[in-house]
Specification:
The chain is α/β, with parallel strands linked by helices. It has nine helices and 22 strands. The protein folds into two domains: 53 residues, no CATH class; 245 residues, TIM Barrel, CATH 3.20.20.70.
Length: 371
């Protein structure tokens, strides 16, 4: 049976000042800090939230750019159910305008009607169960802009014992943020830089709302989250900026939130910017560790030593990683499922099990038919 996509208003919008609430006039989307004013028949910056006869609709509800089974480490999440498979999906559009976007074929897509797959939340949750995935990841493009669909999928997943993961830039307004993250078990938040200038010029957004999201996640939710910074040569890689960022993270989030420094590769509108040298990632990681952050990783490069998890107290290797392949797994869980280093008993934060998953580095495309 074909899944019939609903045509109902989204949650976060209001008639524009001066517009009659019952008319087909302009509306204001209140989902993210952009607060796009959208005329009848128009679309917001993200392109997928549209004014249809005076009501704001999510035009991509129920449609995806594709489904794939990934290793959870690819999100990246190193402290959340290591070694397990995650069912990943995205849609189209984005509420950021990153000139360096490495998923621009999806996030910058304006061909909404060409989205490949159509599936109900229940069908997606059932597919996760059927394929042995422990979680579902909303990724590829920012799930904030398709929050209603992600939240409905999360509800269906939780009914079946499947966890949910948001891979997001964290650019969301306070009210929607509470509802959205209430549906998530884990998140990876892109902290793209630590200056307003970078955010304004290279993403067409602002830094402060992202920092607000990080503080909210740490102090007002139980969501397990990790942070990724894509290190771009000449843009956000100065030792001073990295130092200030790490000092802020330590002060506001504490030492235990994992931080990933990821290598940039030329893409989209920044094809003339060189790839990130490996030694730059190493320097960033060293600065973070010296600042007092305990779990710092490098990504998009082959570096098993710096992508493995080590006990910050005694230095023993606890989870060995080579790209997305796990090796040694030396964690002990107590009766409350809290992980410890077996050598010194130091508590290791995260969501762990006594034995890791065995999915490995495989990436398997998946088709989900309707509902």
């Amino acid at each position: 049976m074909t899944f019939a996509m609903p045509r109902t208003p989204t949650q976060w919008w209001t008639p524009a000042p001066g517009s009659d609430p019952g008319s087909d006039g302009k509306v204001v989307c209140t989902l993210c800090p952009r607060e796009c004013h959208i005329p009848s028949g128009g679309r917001g910056f993200c392109f997928v939230r549209a004014n249809v006869d005076g009501k704001l609709e999510l035009t991509t509800y129920g449609r995806s750019s594709g489904f794939c089974i990934d290793p959870i480490e690819k999100k990246p999440l190193n402290h959340f159910l290591p070694g397990t498979a995650v069912l990943s999906l995205g849609t189209a559009g984005c509420n950021l305008g990153c000139k360096f976007c490495q998923n621009h074929d999806i996030s910058k897509s304006r061909e909404v009607d060409t989205l490949a797959d159509e599936a109900s939340p229940e069908a997606i949750a059932e597919a996760a169960v059927r394929t042995g995935c422990r979680s579902i990841a909303f990724t590829y493009n920012d799930p904030v802009i398709w929050a209603e669909y992600a939240i409905d999928i999360a509800a269906a997943a939780h009914e079946r014992g499947i966890k949910t993961v948001a891979v997001t830039a964290g650019y969301i307004s306070p009210g929607p943020r509470e509802v959205f993250f209430r549906a998530m078990d884990a998140a990876n938040v892109d902290l793209k830089a630590f200056t307003e200038t970078f955010y304004r010029k290279l993403t067409q957004t602002a830094l402060q709302p992202v920092l607000d999201t990080l503080v909210y996640l740490k102090h007002e939710t139980n969501v397990w989250f990790e942070i990724t910074t894509l290190v771009i040569p000449g843009q956000n890689d100065s030792p001073d900026e990295i130092q200030r960022m790490c000092d802020w993270l330590l002060e506001h989030l504490g030492p235990d939130v994992p931080l990933h420094f990821s290598a940039f590769h030329p893409d989209y509108k920044m094809l003339d910017t060189p790839p990130t040298p490996h030694h730059t990632l190493i320097r960033c990681r060293d600065l973070a560790l010296e600042a007092g952050l305990r779990y710092v990783y490098v990504g998009n490069v082959h570096d098993p030593e710096r992508d493995s998890t080590h006990c910050p107290n005694c230095g023993q290797t606890l989870i060995e990683r080579d790209w997305y392949q796990l090796g040694r797994y030396n964690l002990q869980l107590d009766a409350a499922d809290i992980a410890h280093c077996p050598h010194c008993r130091h508590e290791i934060p995260g969501v762990f099990e006594a034995t890791p998953g065995a999915w490995g580095p495989k990436r398997v495309p998946l088709r989900i038919a309707g509902n």
